[in-house]
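Issue 218. Parser rejects a valid record. Input:
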Amino acid sequence: MTSPSRRRRTPKLYANIANPLRRLSLVVLDALDLLVYALVGLAFIGAALLALGFSLAHLLLNFGVALPLTGVVQDVLDFVSDLLLVLIIMEVLGTVRSYLEKGDTSVEPFLIIGIISATRSILSIGARLSVLGTKVTPDEFRNSMIELAIDALVIIALGITMRILVKPGNQPAEAEGAPGSSQPPEGGDVP
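Output the parser choked on:
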């Protein structure tokens, strides 16, 4: 789903903002927003490469090749968790940009923040369990499973809430002929 605050702003949209300070602030925040998202995207690619490297090293370790792997899993998961924190901060910035643009704000960014936060918690629990391995006590394991279930329910509840609250005008235009599209493919009829 593409949020209206994430759509590319045009010079015409900026021209519609009467207050010059608001307009300048929005232009600067949009440029910085794009830069930070690009850097976070590159960092996620780096985290994926690190995880791939760890997986290959772990495979070699299973074949008897000794490699230093201590702490790598936790470091990669901490890095991804930190990147998700950056995304949470960027969503808060999105509400500021929305306010500068429209003079009001919506609940959608806060729902996204909740989903990202629950995802961070799931990653943290997964990291803790993978690092502890067989040293996890039954009580710790049970508590972790309850925590994972609650985080999953939070994600589902917030996702359903977003789906209910999204107005048809806020959804990206459906591709012509795409599955689920109300428009038939070019040259075709609706059965």
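Fixed in the parser; the record now loads. The chain has a mean pLDDT of 77.
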